[in-house]
Amino acid sequence: MANIPATPAAAAVATGHRVSPSPRSSPCLPRRKAMLPSIGAAAGPPSWSSRGAAAVARAATGSDKAAAARTIINPNNVPVLSFSEVAERLDTFQASGARNQNYMAMYSSIFGGITKDPSAMVIPIDDHMVHRGHGVFDTAAIMDGHLYELEQHLDRFLRSALMAKIPLPFDRSTIRSILIQTVSASNCTQGSLRYWLSVGPGDFQLSSSGCANPALYAVVIESPSLQVPAGCKVVTSSIPIKSPHFAVMKSVNYLPNALTKVEGEENGAFTSIWLDDEGFVAEGSNMNVGFVTADKELLMPCFDKILSGCTAKRVLTLAEQLVADGRLSGIISRNVSVQEGKSADEMMLIGSGILVKPVVQWDDQIIGSGQEGPIAQALYGLILEDMRSGPPSVRIRIPY
Ligand SMILES: Cc1ncc(COP(=O)(O)O)c(C=O)c1O
User: Fold this and answer.
1) Do residues 276 and 238 make contact, with C-beta atoms less than 8 angstroms apart?
2) Of 360, 395, 274, 374, which is closest to residue 319 (Cα–Cα)?
3) What does pTM read for this prediction?
4) Is the shortest distance between the CB of 260 and ligand 1 below 6 Å?
5) Atom 7, ligand 1: which residue's CA is nearest?
6) Which ligand 1 atom lies nearest to the CA of residue 310?
7) Is the CB of 257 under 6 A from ligand 1?
8) End-to-end CA distance of the chain
9) Rounded to the nearest 5°, which phi and psi values hold at 389?
10) Is the pLDDT of residue 387 over 60?
11) Is 338 exposed, middle or buried (0-12, 13-18, 19+ CB in 10 A)?
């Protein structure tokens, strides 16, 4: 067990980390000024805050949100700010509309609590997850006030932490409880929960031996209910795939994944598809891939060199209903060649962000009829139904 600071103030002082800066009162945390009277070397321009905020408010109502952020940045006159001035500027940045999503609550083991103030949702810059990528993460969907497949995602989260040699700041049931409390505090009934384990802050070395406080962070993001996914195009990725050792763990090193997604978008596609070192179909940027063969088999690449997707595994179970009613002849995981994939009756992307998304074109090859396939649509329906009314093994009710 790590040595967690006993109080939020202790954590804040130890890390130089903002606790509760907002002029809006936070229900969770006391005002910062009361705790930290003298952080910061010099005051910035005394009237910056009101001038800046007014300028930002004007800019944010216009079409160019970036103009709002620019009002904070004057590279010719960089101020030295106190903690409270930084806090004000973080509020101004937040108010500028620079963020595209609604962050409803964040937990941090560094400040030992939950904040609902998006400006306060920050982590220490000396956290090795920030400067060395020494962290792992996972997610879970929030649907109708329930967390979907939290246990399954938690299993993978803890497996990833073990592989990444990250000591747990808390045991599994405490982590689970913190995650549920964070969603509860957020009042979010539709969205997603994202969470991270990091070797924690301490220094800027490569070794984590100086990190005494492995950290848990979690954030709740509101999102509208899912749309029925339209068929999409994918392309073959030219970005090198991660080696199996790193592909099977969900570390924060997602640069290859991000570049693979960008490459797809640059080519008019939804994402790119990786092939493995032997040229077989591997996975998408942040999703698994499935096919329906001409013999009506549901076919997926094995999980030994790629991330074992919680959604894909659940789809494999739910698909048994389609075998039972004759729409599928079987379900199989094995190597899939590019040629076999491109000549499949159906192709689909599978992941917790998209559920099941039909693919209608891969590179220049039209897949099947070129329309969303019936099996992909049926599997989407089954997983959506499972999210709404599946068994307790996949649905945890949030006590709001
Ligand atoms: C590389 C990769 N593969 C597959 C998946 C799908 O996993 P899940 O269904 O658990 O979201 C993800 C999801 O984040 C991913 O990042």
Assistant:
1) no
2) 374
3) 0.84
4) no
5) 309
6) 10
7) yes
8) 29
9) -150, 25
10) yes
11) middle
* Mean pLDDT estimate for the chain: 86
Residue located nearest, by CA, to atom 14 of ligand 1: 286
Strand partners, 397: 146
pLDDT in tens, 160-218: 999 999 999 999 999 999 999 999 999 999 999 999 999 999 999 999 999 999 999 99
Distant-in-sequence, close-in-space partners of 21: CB < 8 Å, separation ≥ 6: 32, 83, 84, 86, 87, 88, 90, 91, 117, 119, 120
Whether 382 lines ligand 1, by a CB cut-off of 6 Å, is no
* 249, burial (CB in 10 Å: exposed 0-12, middle 13-18, buried 19+): buried
> Is residue 288 in contact with ligand 1, taking CB distance under 6 Å?
yes
Q: How far apart are CA 287 and CA 115, in angstroms?
A: 30
Q: How far is the CA of 274 from the centre of ligand 1 (A)?
A: 13
Q: Which residues are catalytic?
A: 250
CA–centroid distance, 54 to ligand 1, in Å, is 42
C-alpha triplet 246, 250, 255: angle, nearest 5°: 70
Least confident of 69-78, 251-260, 340-349: 69-78
The counts of H helices and E strands in the chain are 14, 16
Q: Which helix (H) or strand (E) holds 292?
A: strand 288-292
Helix (H, G, I), strand (E, B) or coil at 182: helix
**CB neighbour burial string for 205-216, b if at least 16 within 10 angstroms, e if fewer:** eeebeebebbbb
For residue 239 and ligand 1, the question of a CB distance below 6 A is answered with no
Q: How far is the CA of 157 from the centre of ligand 1 (A)?
A: 12
Residue 288 Cα to ligand 1 middle (Å):
6
Q: Which domains does the chain have, with CATH numbers?
A: 8-21+28-33+99-222 (3.30.470.10), 232-389 (3.20.10.10)
Q: What is the pLDDT of residues 142-164, one digit of tens each?
A: 999 999 999 999 999 999 999 99
* Out of 69-73, 261-265, 371-375, least confident range: 69-73
